[in-house]
Write a structure and sequence with these properties.
With 732 residues, this protein is mostly beta strands. It contains four helices and 53 strands. Keywords: Signal. Pfam families: F5_F8_type_C.
């Protein structure tokens, strides 16, 4: 989708999402007509939520031109369409691959719709039976419930509503499933290792070491692990955490699990350089470091959540080599945090005993003990409170030994850890209300579980999705363990979330497939308008990757259409190294598009996309901490132009936006393919008193390329080998 269409005011972006809205409406209908069973094992036939027509073979009586083929109505993309010749009658059909019980269709009409039409079915694609009487076409998405059986489904257009042909953005088909047969609960699979205090330290250490040896430098491998510790005290351990490895306590409070030892991330595998220590995490336990200070030398996508460090914390690798980026939340560090060589860092709703230094961009939101506001010297951005937060859901065991998932409550104007003065407020959900997914599960099974009313718990592994996962029920929890990875196949959207209250997405890695997906994760259909102020959707520790493990392509990684959404730590990354990397090999335009109003983002890491990294169209948006690197690989200036403007800004607030505020924002360039490339600016926004920026910086890494201005035409050029930031304290 071209940038101009993304930057339209909200009132002009309604129609683009009509098919998504229609399919979400179908799914919501299924959720409220009896598929939320009291017993999660009860069997029932339901109208499924999956679009059985998506990606299936299709044909039509005619096409307007080569750019509007029949397949475009079945590709899951709301920006492509089928259109016919300008005459009557016309038809478009799809092959479902076998005889199915068809219970509903959704026709997302473009302006050129049918005046009258029928839905017909066929066993062989030749002899057709009417599944409906003659229907009057309706603008937008038209949903029709029906009861018919056939392999082929078609829309048979009788008369047109305009002088043009028939035109459909999407043609969705739902079929009957035995939706109530999937059980909740179950084992956590072979890649979850559970330890308890009765085990010997030697046996635990042996398991930790074996996994670390496999994962230490396994940057793009397919192995995934979660290391879970039941409540109690463990001594003499050094848990070294490699790629795609999560270590977590299974208590309800971090102090229920105490490790007398270390939880260590270092960079020996990369010669003391920690800038590629991605995709690992620590959560929900206490650590008493052997020498008084724990080491957590990480870069992006490596959260440190709900941890009590009974000592200090060192965020640099041994030898104080390069380090870049990181995230702490809902934690207590009794001693001093030393970032040392970390170029930027974000800490939220925690308490610390002290903070030693800052390089470019240290941001604190709701942190007790944080240094005072002083950007740019030292480069501390400090907010006393976080405006609206909800901590990440987490797995734990209750007193009877059963697994449950705890969902913390919403907080406003918060500071300090949620558990600092007692148990974290929230709701506990038994594992029996989750479908415990394994990598062998297909998308149809996962959609069946969601339609049945189950939450999803993804165990560690790589999941290939042949169809979009549709999350439609309010308050659904979708939680991944051990960097569970979702890969859309055939160009589908990996996940759609309906415009409903309180959905929680956490702990997932979306990895682009080899066929371009228009979006990897869409939160709310295009044109969503419902307020969720009292119970927002939340996105936490959700990461996106375009290439690196192999060629991948997705136009946009994350689109947030739902109002009031909380984005709490994402890393959207178009890969600059690994397999399948190149200007035209792993293409991706934009990491994040926010269309919803009153969306709040904390810990926003977005890097290397080919156009705008972030586009913010919604009103009332807030971002607290943004870290960005512009694409390394523009072949030359001519290849990276936004009209007559050199390059694209990292963070674009649309001209239509009247209220927006952001704090602690950094953008860096390293145009290694052609160092003569220039980005005109790091940030771009309308100049209004109600669109505010605080503590901005741009940096040229080693002078490899130039960012001419910080924001709009304000701020000098970031250039030169000294790698010195150019700062703007406030704008306008």
């Amino acid at each position: 989708m071209p940038p101009s269409s993304r930057l339209r005011p909200r009132t002009r972006r309604r129609r683009a999402g009509l098919v998504t809205a229609g399919l979400a409406a179908l799914s919501t209908f299924a959720a409220v007509t009896g598929v939320l069973p009291a017993s999660y094992g009860a069997a029932a036939a339901v109208c499924g939520t999956a679009n059985a027509a998506q990606g299936r073979p299709s044909s039509a009586s005619s096409t307007e031109n080569a750019g509007t083929p029949a397949s475009a109505a079945f590709d899951g993309a709301t920006g492509t369409r089928w259109s016919s010749a300008f005459s009557d009658p016309q038809w478009i059909q799809v092959d479902l691959g076998g005889s199915r019980q068809i219970c509903r269709v959704a026709l997302n009409w473009e302006t050129a719709r049918a005046q009258t039409f029928k839905i017909q079915v066929s066993a062989d694609g030749s002899t057709w039976t009417d599944a409906t009487a003659t229907v009057t076409g309706a603008a937008g998405t038209q949903t029709l419930d029906l009861a018919a059986t056939g392999r082929y489904v078609r829309m048979y257009g009788l008369t047109r509503a305009t002088q043009y042909g028939y035109s459909l953005w999407e043609f969705g088909v739902n079929v009957v499933t035995d939706g109530g047969t999937l059980p909740g609960g179950g084992d956590l699979g072979p890649n979850v290792r559970v330890f308890d205090p009765s085990m010997s330290a030697a046996s635990i250490q042996s398991t930790l070491d074996t996994i670390f040896r496999q994962q230490e430098s396994n940057q793009f491998g397919g192995q995934r692990y979660a290391l879970l510790f039941k409540p109690g005290t463990y001594s003499g351990l050094n848990a070294q955490i490699g790629f795609y490895t999560s270590i977590s306590g299974l208590g309800q409070s971090p102090d229920n699990v105490t490790i007398n030892g270390d939880i260590t991330v270092d960079a020996g595998w990369f010669n003391g350089n920690a800038t590629q220590n991605f995709w690992r995490s620590a959560e929900n336990l206490a650590v008493v470091p052997v020498n008084g200070t724990d080491r957590w030398a990480v870069a992006q996508a490596a959260p440190f959540r709900r941890i009590h460090v009974r000592g200090g914390l060192n965020l640099a690798p041994n030898g104080y080599g390069w380090a870049s980026g990181g995230y702490i939340a809902d934690s207590k560090i009794d001693g001093t945090v030393g970032p040392y060589s970390q170029q930027q860092w974000f800490t939220r709703d925690s308490s610390i005993g002290g903070w030693t230094n800052g390089v470019w961009n240290m941001v604190f939101s709701g942190v007790v003990g944080a240094p005072a506001q002083s950007f740019p010297n030292p480069p501390y951005t400090t907010l006393a409170q976080s405006p609206v937060t909800r901590e990440k859901p987490y797995l734990y065991v209750d007193q009877g030994g059963a697994y449950r998932v705890f969902v913390p409550s919403l907080r406003t104007n918060s500071s300090g850890a949620s558990w600092a003065n007692g148990a974290t407020p929230g709701t506990s959900i038994p594992l029996t209300q989750f479908y415990v997914a394994k990598p062998s599960d297909g998308a149809a099974t996962l959609n069946q579980a969601l339609a049945q009313g189950l939450n999803l718990l993804f165990t560690p592994g790589v999941y290939h999705l042949s169809q979009t996962l549709n999350v439609t029920r309010p308050d659904t929890v979708v939680l991944g363990l051990g960097y569970a990875t979702l890969i859309p196949d055939g160009g589908v959207v990996a996940m759609n979330v309906a415009d409903v209250d309180g959905v929680k997405l956490a702990g997932l890695l979306f990895d682009a497939g080899t066929v371009n997906s228009p979006v990897l994760l869409r939160v709310g259909p295009d044109g969503a308008t419902a307020s969720h102020a009292g119970n927002p959707i939340s996105i936490q520790d959700v990461f996106f990757r375009i290439g690196g493990a192999g060629p991948g392509s997705a136009t946009t990684s994350l689109v947030v259409n739902s109002d009031n959404t909380i984005i709490d730590h994402i890393w959207a990354w178009r890969a600059d190294h690994g397999a399948g990397v190149g200007w035209n090999t792993n293409p991706a335009d934009t990491g994040l598009i926010v269309n919803g109003d009153n969306v709040t983002a904390y810990g926003l890491f977005v890097e290397h996309y080919k156009k705008y990294e972030v586009i913010w169209n919604g009103q009332g948006g807030r971002t607290i901490f943004f870290q960005n690197e512009l694409p390394y690989d523009p072949p030359n200036q001519a290849s990276w132009m936004n009209g007559s403007t050199r390059g694209y800004a990292a963070y674009k607030v649309a001209d239509s936006v009247t209220t927006h505020e952001a704090w602690g924002m950094g953008s860096y360039c390293n145009f290694s393919t052609d160092p003569s490339v220039v980005a005109e600016r790091g940030f771009e926004a309308p100049t209004r008193s109600t669109v505010k920026f605080h503590d901005l910086l741009t940096v040229s890494l080693g002078g490899v390329g130039t960012i001419a201005h910080v924001i709009n035409n304000t701020g000098g050029a970031a250039q030169g080998t000294a790698t010195v930031p150019v700062n703007v304290v406030s704008y306008p």
